[in-house]
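Narrative progress, year one. The postdoctoral researcher (J.K.) led the effort to move from monomer predictions toward full complexes, under supervision of the PI. The following entry was the first complex the group processed end to end, covering 223 residues in total.
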Amino acid sequence: SQQGEEDPQALSIQEGENATMNCSYKTSINNLQWYRQNSGRGLVHLILIRSNEREKHSGRLRVTLDTSKKSSSLLITASRAADTASYFCATDNSGGATNKLIFGTGTLLAVQP
Amino acid sequence: DAGITQSPRHKVTETGTPVTLRCHQTENHRYMYWYRQDPGHGLRLIHYSYGVKDTDKGEVSDGYSVSRSKTEDFLLTLESATSSQTSVYFCAIGDRDEQYFGPGTRLTVT
């Protein structure tokens, strides 16, 4: 069963706009990560936020985590056509017992030039 | 793709035939994973390995077996391929903080 569910499933915006996508999960986690997947390629790690953190930034990316609501959001500011991709959240809820991640179903982002 | 290669990159096979996919890494990483990606399901873990000859099942392991005789190679075998195993298969290395993915293998079972 999926741990993470992304929302929306698909998002279309204009270049220069901000893109926000959300991830909800079911059980307690150690960390939550976001990955990007360009069409026909493997996933690429973007950012990690630990369960004791509330917000993290990396370049044009901003991630928030609300453990009380079991949700996270990924904000991409000033989007570019090159940001067009699928975005997945992944959670580590193993309690340190394993190195397994559980991935969500993804948000497909299309940035129109 | 972080020193991870997968072979073959594309394969078409018939129902009932055995198929082996290979993942090769040059990073000397202890942990390796096999996922499948299907529309509407995201990535689902099939099997993973935490060392040579040490493997464990993931979420969707039925119909699949794995082997790891060397640190750098992780093999995924479909013992008798079925149409439900048509998918894109990704190998990954890494740990709970970050994983690195190979380019994927597109498998079609007819």
